[in-house]
Design goal:
By secondary structure, the chain is an alpha+beta fold. Helix content is 33%, strand content 34%. It has a seven-stranded mixed sheet with strand order 1-2-3-4-5-7-6, sandwiched between helices.
C-alpha cells in the first residue's frame, strides 16, 4: 500500500483517524501545525484513496521521536502499523537518525509487542503521563548501533 507524506487534503481523514484511535486525540489543527514544523515528518498509508494509517515523527540531529501512529480500527491486525513505522524509520535513517524514541501507554500490549519487534526497549516510565486517565507511559528507545552489533 502506498505510504507518502501527509498533505493538506489528508487532514480531515487524519483527524478522524486520530479521534477513532485515541481517547485523547490531538487538538484540531495539530497535524497541520506538524506539517509546517521543519523537524516533523508526517506520513499516511492509503488504500484506494482512503487514509488507513498516519504517523508523525520528529527528527533532530541523529534522534527521531515517533510522536503518534494510528491505524484505522477497521484496518488493524493487517500489518499496516508495521509498514508505516518501517517506512518512516527508513526515511529518518537516510536523514541520519540512529536513535529512536517513543512513548506508549503502559497497558497497550499490542503496541508494546509491535515496538519490541522493531527492537525498541523500555528505558523509563513517565508516571501519570496521559491526561485522560492518568495512565503511565513507557518510554521506549531503539539505538541502531546496538541493533547492528547483535
Amino acid at each position: 500500500m502506498p505510504i507518502r507524506p501527509m498533505t493538506l487534503t489528508d487532514l480531515p481523514a487524519v483527524n478522524e483517524l486520530d479521534r477513532l484511535s485515541f481517547s485523547l486525540a490531538w487538538p484540531e489543527g495539530a497535524f497541520a501545525a506538524e506539517m509546517r514544523n521543519p523537524n516533523a515528518r508526517c506520513w499516511v498509508l492509503t488504500e484506494g484513496n482512503q487514509v488507513q494509517a498516519a504517523l508523525v515523527l520528529w527528527c533532530v540531529l541523529d534522534e527521531a521521536h515517533i510522536a503518534t501512529v494510528a491505524v484505522h480500527p477497521a484496518a488493524r491486525r493487517r500489518g499496516l502499523g508495521r509498514q508505516i513505522i518501517r517506512a518512516a524509520m527508513d526515511a529518518a535513517i537516510v536523514e541520519g537518525a540512529r536513535i529512536f524514541h517513543l512513548e506508549v501507554r503502559a497497558g497497550n500490549d499490542p503496541a508494546l509487542a509491535l515496538y519490541e519487534q522493531f527492537g525498541f526497549e523500555v528505558v523509563g516510565r513517565r508516571e501519570k503521563y496521559y491526561m485522560d486517565n492518568g495512565e503511565d507511559a513507557l518510554l521506549m528507545t531503539l539505538r541502531l548501533e546496538k541493533t547492528e552489533e547483535a
